[in-house]
Amino acid sequence: MSIATSIEIDAAGLYYKELNAQIRDAVSEGALKVVLKNVTGQRYIGTNLYGTVDRDTLRKLEIEIHGTPGNDLGMFLDGPTITVHGNVMDGSGNTMNHGRIVAHGRAGDITGFSARGGEMFIKGNAGYRVGIHMKEYGDMRPVMTIGGATQDFLGEYMAGGVVIILGLTLKPGEAHYCNHVGTGMHGGMIFLRGNIEPHQIGTGVGMPELTDKDAELLTNYIAEYGRLFDTDVSEIKLEDFTKLAPLSVRPYKQVYAY
Amino acid sequence: MKIEEHQNNNPSKPAQRKASDFKIRSNRLSEFAVQRDYDRCIKCEVCIKQCSFDVHYRDEEDDLIKHRPENCVGCHRCAVMCPTAAISITPNPAQYRAHGSWSGEHVKDINRQAETGGVVLTGSGNDKAAPVYWDRMLINASQVTNPSIDPLREPMELRTYIGAKPASVKVKDGKLASEMPPQIKIQMPILFSAISYGAISYNVQKAIAEAAEELGTLYNTGEGGLHPDFYKYKDNTIVQVASGRFGVHPDYLNAARMVEIKIGQGAKPGIGGHLAGEKVSESVSITRMIPMGTDAISPAPQHDIYSIEDLRMLIFALKEATNYRVPVSVKIAAVHNAAAIASGIVRAGADVVAIDGFRGGTGAAPKAIRDNVGLPIEFALAAVDQRLRDEGIRNQVTLISGGGIRCAADIVKAIALGADAVYIGTAALIAVGCTLCQKCYSGKCNWGIATQNPYLAKRVNSEIAKNRLVNLVQGWSHEIKEMLGGMGINSIESLKGSRSQLRGVGLTSEELDILGIRPAGM
Ligand code: SF4
Ligand code: SF4
């Protein structure tokens, strides 16, 4: 095959099992781009692609979704890029390993839960427990960029990875409304643009200064956000960010009597 | 002092004690007494090398091997290894004044906590004297009518199929015409339960995997991921998905015959886990896919499961991720409402429900929880099986019970109560050397099992350990066959849920009711 094949599937009326089986078949047969029309809540899109084609091909695969995919979009995702022209529900990027999820809308709860790699871009707000227990390993480090704000328990138990919250949906002067941010965090970092009070942040989480490396990372991801969503990001200043990072990689060390 | 003279009969021993002879902590009685027969001691220092708890030491000045009994955890490694049998480890005869309410253990734990302000940790399984109901059930045998069968003469079937069974099947031209949910054929109703690499050493996990392969059964990775070297045992592997999601990715999920969602564990229902950073060695870090030296924290709940509906979502996520090729198990701790929860799990689409009783082992758990939370597996199993039967959904799952299975008779009783198979964990570790010292959480296991310290871990040779595991399971299989034969049954299938083969002794009528068995003599 000299040119990438693209295939379109009409998801209207299809049960998720059927829809996902069709996607799997299409990828197995060599499709490099799968466009899904009329998606109405089907779960686990992108989850069942293991064993279809080799790893490198999976990394080139694009899945374009029109409509609203259901929960656990791209759960265990390992390579493909999923672009959603709409909102995503709960559990997008759940335990994701590699790849990219871009949502031109809002995201539900536990977005990026336990992700170990890959990138996520959410244009607007996200729900509760976002980025909870994200981790990293070797050169695998998940980065999640959220254009708006999130609800409580952001980055709870975080063991690695990066969460960037741009706060673009907050009104001028409005502070972040998420509480218990980073509770139990023992790795990774959260960059939050906008005001947040110390009482909103979990114990054991510190607010170190941004390093040069942090600034470079933020600049890149902000630019990418602007490009993906065709948004003017020139207003976003690095000095408006608060960095949250764990004070210890061993938060529970003192809890036990030996 | 008289006692010291009595304890030490070496005439060359100095009369005076130096500061280094004194206990490190002075307000706790040692749990164990270390006695060294100085007439036998050849000062070879084997005990010093064998003990990772820093009990034995050489006093250069006095030219004697001495000990700090307050550090001893009673693992008996030194006593076994001492070439002249000079050492004996006993419970410390010096005890606090006896008290009916405040046991020595209470007093010691209070002191430990007063010193540190922490949670008292422990390992292994509940060691308290709550009744073991297996011991209060007796198995039937045939006499005269329904002749007993000699398994050495006649075929005896222990083969077990793990997976959901359809309510009915169609047969066409002598062949199965309906589509079956995924099934795993194992040669005996015994599986190795979840013990993660991290909690135990590489060699021990390898031994368990190889034993499962040789026996034709399954072992369970626990929630610690799968070491790259162990992918080769995939035909005998159950991979676990727990709240930490360590090492969980598509390759891992697809390397297994079964995927198990771990909701709970009998030794610590309702709480998460925590592998201390010290145990996250380079190789454990590769397996769990977390940086070396960081704590591996498994939160108490799975944060994508707050309801049965959410559980269903994860079950089907795993089925999607494995293309519906393998059964999905859900493991829960035996708790008060286990029957209702199990019913929910079956309706959520699980193929297997694993129930772990409160005597199940652990690498680390708060002692308060290990010893006080949960249910004996015998009750939970009977209640779950009954509930699923009453609801007409028992066929939809395989029921695996674990947590305190100590011998072949326990297995026969579990299957008669309604289990399809059992998980064994502690028994397997005992087979490779564990002496139940309960210090697994310390990472200093002198028997080379619950440790990542290479010096200690190499005490277990994986081939010898594998042979011991194979021997144990084969021995138990023979015993199960003997007991089945005695009942006049030639297949384990015929024993399943056959509670009429059991009678209770010393049980109240309520206990008999819950177990669904009659009292002995009736
Ligand atoms: S901890 Fe074990 S090896 Fe050490 S002295 Fe006690 S029994 Fe012996
Ligand atoms: S595994 Fe080791 S540390 Fe744990 S109880 Fe057994 S002998 Fe003791």
Report on this model:
With 258 residues, chain A is an alpha/beta fold. Chain A has two domains: 1-84; 87-258, Glutamate synthase, alpha subunit, C-terminal domain (Pectate Lyase C-like). Helices cover 14% and strands 27% of the residues of chain A. Chain A is built from three helices and twelve strands. Chain A has helices at 16-28, 55-60, 212-229, and strands spanning 5-10, 31-40, 62-68, 78-85, 98-103, 119-122, 143-146, 159-165, 187-193, 205-206, 241-246, 256-257. Chain A has an eleven-stranded mixed β-sheet, with helices on both faces. The model of chain B is unreliable at 1-8 (pLDDT under 50). In chain B, helix 5 (202-215) packs across helix 15. Chain B has two domains: 24-116, Alpha-Beta Plaits (2-Layer Sandwich), CATH 3.30.70.20; 134-519, Aldolase class I (TIM Barrel, Alpha-Beta Barrel). Helices cover 29% and strands 16% of the residues of chain B. Chain B has 522 residues and is of the alpha/beta class. Chain B has helices at residues 2-7, 46-50, 77-81, 104-116, 202-215, 250-253, 282-288, 308-321, 338-347, 367-372, 377-390, 408-417, 426-431, 454-457, 462-487, 509-515, and strands at 32-36, 56-59, 64-67, 87-91, 119-122, 137-139, 160-162, 171-172, 175-176, 184-186, 190-192, 219-220, 237-241, 258-262, 273-275, 296-298, 328-333, 352-356, 365-366, 398-402, 421-424, 502-504, 518-519. Chain B is built from 16 helices and 23 strands. In chain B, the strands form eight sheets. Chain B has an eight-stranded parallel β-sheet. In chain B, strands 6-22-23 form a three-stranded mixed β-sheet, covered by helices on one side. At the A-B interface, helix 1 and strand 12 of A face helix 4, strand 5, helix 6 and helix 8 of B. Strand 12 (256-257) of chain A pairs parallel with strand 5 (119-122) of chain B. The complex binds iron/sulfur cluster (2 copies). Residues 75, 123-124, 429, 434-440, 445, 447, 449-450 of chain B line the site of one iron/sulfur cluster.
